[in-house]
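Summary for the steering committee. One of the milestones for this cycle was to obtain a three-dimensional model of the protein with 3-methyl-2-oxobutanoic acid bound, which we needed before selecting residues for the alanine scan. The sequence and ligand used are listed below.
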Amino acid sequence: MTNSNRLIIFDTTLRDGEQSPGASMTRDEKVRIARQLERLRVDVIEAGFAAASPGDFEAIRAIASVIKDSTVCSLSRANERDIARAAEALLPAPRKRIHTFIATSPLHMQMKLRMEPEQVYEQARAAIRYARQHTDDIEFSPEDGSRSEEDFLCRVLEGVIAEGATTINFPDTVGYAVPEVFGETIRRLRERIPNSDKAIWSVHCHNDLGLAVANSLAGVTIGGARQIECTINGLGERAGNTALEEVVMAVRTRSDFFKLELGIDTTQIVAASKMVSQITGFAVQPNKAVVGANAFAHASGIHQDGMLKARETYEIMRAEDVGWAATKIVLGKLSGRNAFKQRLQELGIDLASEDDVNAAFARFKELADRKSEIFDEDIMALVSDEEHSHENEHYRFVSLAQRSETGSTPSAKVVFTMGGKQYSCEGEGDGPVDAMVNAIEKKAASGAELVLFTINAISGGTQSQGEVTMRLSRSGRIVNGVGSDPDIVVASAKAYLSGLNKLYSKIEKVNPQL
Ligand code: KIV
Ligand code: ZN
């Protein structure tokens, strides 16, 4: 099976990506991203970890109900309860996969699982046997694979393949691997395991040493893996996972070297990147490969001159091939509801009901009154804001007035609702944002600590909306609040209240790797 030249792209933005502190998404946001992943034509969408929480279960089920072309997958620990939950969530999916895992490194087995290797071996085999009752498409991961003993790995992996695992995913869980060693290990495992050809081999790398993409590619070229697990923008725990856009564009741009086929529609990459960034509040650094704002910007005179004569002088990929089309002015103040609805459809935004379309259209009209040109990014932000406001309406922004003048103390008056009751609070601070937060906190008294604050211009020009992320922390929980508005203090207030709403919602998840 591994001789095939088809490289399977397995996206885990909605599972491993979501494990990034503060990146949790609502069910509707996950469905929106899943639809974009399908447009991108990823082969497998890991939609979540069904047993982690009722919210995860519902999101997987909703994704399984709408995704038709990509395989939908749920993670599960190697036990019957988790696997049954995954299978139940995946029921509506035309193509489904159960991905089950158990740690195999001495450190994880002793310290985390407190299990003997023999027990881990038996549990891994039993899990695959059980999963086979639900689907034929089963993936197995020996967690912390890159720090596991090779003889033990050979035994476990041979055992799970014999039970019917169809994909063997080799994880570098802690981002410890280096490319040559990682690739060679997979090559040797495939060589030593007698039934290794009965499964497709896969790689799953974390980016702690900045080597996730290099390790994944070495797993493919040296190791013979034919599936890469990755996330949009490299989102994921700690330093993140292998970035989808980077491996895909490496394989495509250097097809002379890799000689592999991909099913991906690369023109959907930038839209996916923007959507994930907007929904999670994780900004993309400007110099990020492929999807950073500067990835195709040529500033130096020599480069610009070269580009004008022949773009290949300094450009190895075409911006339009990854979806950097010129940003379109889509709509304006005179645009009607039908034009707005059609644009939503073109952007892959599927609002649940006509009431939701009406609410979004009302917000669009409000925005168009204040901003003459409305870009695609504005519409995506507007829908995101709308979804954030639905997720939990304990706090809701109503209005804001603020005053700042050189030489005087900035002040703000914020009107907002808390538990359905409206409050008007005033505060002062070192700047207008500080004053706004102090005003809200006079009533909210949340005890939250602001640990990160970013503002991004959504589109070009001074007319652009500001998109604000506020990362809040309280009692060990970290959440990202996001908000957008042409007035950046209003955007900040919306972001702050969206963060408080997330802290207010008590839904806790199990982290699969704990
Ligand atoms: O990093 C890891 O080991 C994982 C597994 C569950 C595949 O995410
Ligand atoms: Zn992982």
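Key point for the committee: The two ends are 33 Å apart (CA to CA).
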